[in-house]
Structures are given as C-alpha cells and as structure tokens.
Amino acid sequence: MKLPQTFETRMKEMLGEEYKDYEKTLEEKHYSGIRVNTLKISPEEFEKIAPFSITRIPWIKNGYYYNQNEQPARHPYYFAGLYYIQEPSAMTPASLLPVTPGDKVLDICAAPGGKSTELGAKLCGKGVLVSNDISNSRAKALLKNIELFGIRNPVIASEAPGKLVDYFTEYFDKILVDAPCSGEGMFRKSPAIMKNWEQYGVEYYNKLQKEIILQAARMLKPGGYLLYSTCTFSKEENEGTISYLLEQYPEFQVVDPLTDNSVSYEGFSHGRPEWGNGREELKNCIRLWPHKIKGEGHFIALLRKGEPKGDSLIAVSGNLGKLKITKEAEDFLSEIPLPINEENLLVKEDRLYLLPSELPELKGLRLLRQGLLLGEMKKGRFEPSQALASALYKGDYHKVIDLPGNSAEVIKYLKCETIEANSTKGDGYHLVTADSYSLGWGKLAKGSLKNKYLPGWRWM
Ligand SMILES: C[S@@+](CC[C@H](N)C(=O)[O-])C[C@H]1O[C@@H](n2cnc3c(N)ncnc32)[C@H](O)[C@@H]1O
C-alpha cells in the first residue's frame, strides 16, 4: 500500500524498530466484527443461535469476529437488532467507559451509532442517553440504529457541541468524545481515507478535537468520566489533545480504564507522555496498534473530573402541557411493560413519546428524537411505532406472531409484504418476531396480516 510520504516518515519516527511490523499489516486483510446487543440477548445465548461462524474478540465481552465471506446484515437477526456490525478496535471505547444503569450519558460525536448503541445497552433503559452528531444526514442513520437496537431512553440531537453546553452544563455522569480525526488507523480498512488525510491533515482535526473536548468537559458533572477516542495515530490528535484539556481544566485526571473496568488485554499499549506535555498520567491512555492486536488503530483516554464542590442544580422538564391521550392509546400502552406515567409522556403533533426522567428543557435544540417514540394517535386510533416494536424484548408482549428466523415468511414480512397468519389472541395489532426476537408490527384481520414494518427499514 502506498502511504503518504509525510505520514510514513512520521510513523517511522514514532515506531522505530516496530515500523516494519506495522508496515506488514498494511498488506494483510482487516478484521470484521459484530457486537451482540445485550439488551436483547446474552453473548452466551447468541453463541448458541449464531447463524454464521463467529470467534470471540479477546478484549470485548460481547464482540466477535466473523468471516468476511459472511453477510451478517442479511439475516433476520440483524433486523431484530441482535447485533451491530463494527470493526473490532472500534468496540473498545464504549466498552471502557464505565456506564451503569441510571447514568446520564452523552455521546457527542455519535453517528452512525457504533458506540451509542453499546452505551444504550449498558444503560439497560435506565437514565438517559443523549446521542448527538453535528451532521444531520449522519444523525438520521444514528436514529435508525438507536431505534433498531431497542434503546428505550434516547434523545437524538444534531447540534454543534457549543450549543449543547447551554442546556447541559455539568449535567452528564459519563461522556464519550469519539472525535472526528484524520483516520490514520483506518488506512488498511478504507484506503480512500488517505485522500481525506492529504486534503485536511492532522491540524484541521486537532483544532476541532480541542474545541469539542473542552465543550464536553463543561457538560460533565464533577466526579464524572469522559472517554476520548480516535482512530488515528498522530501525537497531536491523541496525547496532544489530552494534554490541552489537562492544561485548560486541571481538575481532570487521566485514569487507567483497565483497572476501572477490570479488563485487561496484552495487546494494548500505553500512551506516551513524551508525545504530549510529558505528564506521567498520559501513560494511562491506551493505544491499539494493528501490529499488536487483531484490529485497526485506535487511541483511548479515560478522564475523571475532580470531586463535586456541592450539588449541581438540574433544571427538570416543567409542565408537559395537558396530555390528550386517546382511549385506544391508553389501552394499548397499558399492556406494554414500560414505566409509562403521565410525568414522562410527551404528546407532540399526535405523536406520543416516553421521555427519560430528569431531562432539562430542550426547547430550541435540533432534535431528531426526544425519548422513545411510542406511536401515533390518528383520529382516535393508536398506531404503535417501529421504535416501540424494537424496544420490546423477548417475552415483553403477549400478542405475537412468531416466525422461524430461517423462513421465507420472515423475509416476506421484512420486505413489507402481506403475509397470512393466525393468532389465538384475535385480530388487531400483533408483534411480529423472528425466533421470538421482535421485528415490527402487523395488523391481523381474518387470517391476513397487514404489514406495518417501517418501509424505510425494509429488506432490499
Ligand atoms: C469518528 S466519527 C463517530 C463515529 C461514531 N462514534 C460511531 O461509533 O459510530 C466522528 C463524528 O463526528 C462528527 N462531527 C464532526 N465534527 C463535529 C462537531 N464539531 N461536533 C459533533 N460532531 C462532529 C462527524 O459527523 C462524525 O459522525
């Protein structure tokens, strides 16, 4: 592979003797992975039903390599949100941010959702996940992935981080900054990135990273954790950005993510203090080099913000307005095992949302989604949403039409075709599942199931 000359020279300087090992990897195949959605299935269960052969990624509890001849995006389990297709090293940042159920979490550069989906899974529906991306088109892909994963407590925004600060100052317990970067770690997987590298270079991204990380720092509660990651090697974008944050906000400290998460992996390398401002704590950063692990290049730094100096004030959403919920919606939702009560319901233009609790007022932000879209109330009727179907896990709903995962019928359903079906529960809305994992809705009438699968998500 022909590398840009200045990149090659710098890598030789950084890696010394090891450069030849790195260079060899450029001629090898990259690795492909899937990450299991623990909201819907445990890794152990998935191993039993995996429709193609998989092997464990040693440092990711729910991550697996798959053979590149396989097509994991063309299986009903993918449509049931049982896994996310993700490059193995890219699974590391979300796995090392110590998120626990109930946290308020921000993923500030989130699209298309590779890390947000894992952060949402770690929250188990408790707390709030704000997933943001400045690019509106990319945020649409993010919305789809969050909904397909069945995440019940999301807010999806498309804003400049500076604007978010006005709403969320010292609000979050955990923040992920998966920063835009020059992508040097991905040259093997996507050689086209080299053109972008030559056009923009390290400086362009480093300036952006410094802006974003400072804004993220302002939104973190004292005592909270911020994880910064890139898929590049340059010193400036990695130890350099972290040094800059430490100089601007001395209350931050780089901590060892491996101790905090009780995971370790021999292929991980330490950060290099001399590549930043020399502070010893930069050793706690992690570098993933493709010649040391079966994955692409990455950098990770976990930081803790200094202890609280008193309780921070949180503006809680005020009056949601008088809710006008139709009887049909009420009846439908009474059978759904979600913590639905009037305080966390929002009605907007006939659409009904379930809000995460303790959200501040978000008026004025560009939001793609505020909470879980439950459905639409149309002329007194209630149409449950695709997102609600995805957010119902195995056994959550009793009116089900279950199709075998390997049947022609399930593909017909995913192609939005009408199928024939029967139910002991009478006519009306049924959740269509593949081997018990939810796919979407269908409306049963006289043995025929009117397809309510979201057309934009259909099998092509
Ligand atoms: C490395 S990608 C994120 C990948 C994502 N975390 C995932 O795992 O799927 C960086 C993202 O940052 C977004 N971005 C670029 N500039 C930004 C900014 N100033 N604020 C927020 N996001 C930004 C890009 O649109 C891009 O989606």
TrEMBL record:
Q: Please tell me where S-adenosyl-L-methionine binds in this chain.
A: 109-115, 133, 178
GO terms (BP aspect):
RNA methylation; RNA processing
Active site, renumbered:
231
**What protein family does this chain belong to?**
Belongs to the class I-like SAM-binding methyltransferase superfamily. RsmB/NOP family.
Q: Does the keyword RNA-binding apply?
A: yes
Q: Which Gene3D superfamilies match?
A: 2.30.130.60, Sun protein, domain 3, Vaccinia Virus protein VP39
The organism encoding this protein is Anaerocolumna chitinilytica
Q: Which gene encodes it?
A: rsmF
Name of the molecule in the record = Ribosomal RNA small subunit methyltransferase F
Write down the NCBIfam families for this protein, in alphabetical order: nop2p (TIGR00446)
Q: Which UniProt keywords apply?
A: Cytoplasm, Methyltransferase, RNA-binding, S-adenosyl-L-methionine, Transferase
Q: Which GO terms describe its molecular function?
A: RNA binding; RNA methyltransferase activity; S-adenosylmethionine-dependent methyltransferase activity
Residues in SAM-dependent MTase RsmB/NOP-type domain copies: 1-306
